[in-house]
Amino acid sequence: MNSKKLSDISFSVLDLAAVAEGRTPADTFRNSLDLAKNVEKAGYTRYWFAEHHNMVSVASSAPAILIGYIAGNTTSIRVGSGGVMLPNHAPLIVAEQFGTLASLYPGRIDLGLGRAPGSDQITAYAIRGENMNASYHFPQDVESLLTFFSDENVNGQVRANPGEGLDIPVWILGSSTDSAMLAAKMGLPYAFASHFAPAMFLKAINLYRQNFRPSGHVKEPYVMACVNVVAADTDQEAARLATSLYQFFIGVISGRRKLLQPPVENMDEHWTIYEKEAVNQMLGYAFIGGPEKIRTKMEDFIAKTQIDEVMATSHIFDHQARLHSYQLFAEVLKSANPVLL
How confident is the model at residue 132 (pLDDT cuts 50, 70, 90)? Predict the structure, then answer.
């Protein structure tokens, strides 16, 4: 197998629709559309939203609606979920929603599926009620969803209209070896959440590749890694911008959630030694720096993992700095002349 290089890798965006201090979800959604239009010009492959609930700083609680908003105001970039937390929903409803999206925007809709609730346990109960063990039915629910999309379900008693017979790529998302084995068994592309759960990444993608069974969906294993990216003109500026990301993860670890905070000059005034260590562990695959530092780290990452695609998520407080970060990241990954935003 030939070793991949930077220009071989597709690159995409994961948008958590982070709400910045002093802003509203409406502001966030407008910024998401602006970002989507810009990354489309810059050559990004897809633009995904993740499903989260009961988080003041994350506005992507209804990804299907946001997918329609972005797809309806762009022209070519693929738009999808990274992911829909399937245990929160009936497979039929997901099939109908994404069948509707794929009918409106043919050839542009992706459906990434996860088994976690995308929230805390109290919120999960508010969503699922007594169906708190829904995650254990995840493999069967994925099979059910694939059946609803299939032509073979034409004689089924329950059918997804729209949805049946449409070409909607289904991905398995995960942060563990369980998800890797499921994606391999079903012959589906696999997206790993290395942006917050790096510990199992290498083991999971190796298991996926070793156990992959070709299917009618994809013939060879396909690995996408989601990573944190904060790019700027200099390493020093990127390090300053990244303090917003660190503060976001402190909220994840401590439960003291806030809106996305502006950068600070000295993080040691804002986290404990324990929090710093925990954040650094969660950010094992974070690419923070100027273009040359990003390039070197990405080359090492690709050589080590041989991924097929990288999906960047960027918790950057200032919208223009976020746009610039995605532009710089695209320039690093492309061998052609950059497309200026």
Answer: low
37 domain residue, yes or no: yes
Q: Count how many domains the chain has.
A: 1
pLDDT in tens, 183-198: 999 999 999 999 999 9
Per-residue pLDDT reduced to its tens digit, 93-122: 999 999 999 999 999 999 999 987 555 677
CA–CA gap between residue 72 and residue 101 (Å, rounded): 10
Element housing 149 (H / E): helix 138-149
- 278 in any annotated domain: no
Structural domain containing residue 174: 6-228+302-323
Does 91 fall in a domain? yes
CATH classification of the domain holding 105: 3.20.20.30
Lookup: tokens for 179: 């998800």
**pLDDT at residue 255, rounded to an integer:** 84
The β-bridge partners of 228 are 286, 313
Cβ distance 97 to 156 under 8 Å?
no
Whole-angstrom distance, CA of residue 297 vs CA of residue 295: 6
Give the containing element (helix H, strand E) for 63. Answer: helix 63-71
Cβ count near 47 (within 10 Å): 29
